[in-house]
Amino acid sequence: MLNRRDFLVAATGAVVATPFAARQQAQAGPIRTVRTNILEIAYHEVGDPNGFPVILLHGFPDDAHAYDGVGPLLAKAGYRSLAVYLRGYAPTRFLDRSQPRTAEQAAIGQDVIDFADALKLPRFALAGFDWGGRAAGVASALHPERVRGAVLIGGYSIQNTITPGRPGSPEAARRAWYQWYLNTDVGKTGLEQNRKAFCEALWREWSPTWKFTPEMYAQTAASFESPDFVDCVVHSYRHRNFNAPGEPRFADVEKKLAERPPINVPVISLHGGDDAFGVPSAEISAGERATLPQIVDKRIVPGAGHFVPHEKPEPVAQAIIDLLARAK
Question: Do strands 39-46 and 31-35 pair parallel, antiparallel, or not at all (unpaired)?
Answer without folding.
Answer: antiparallel
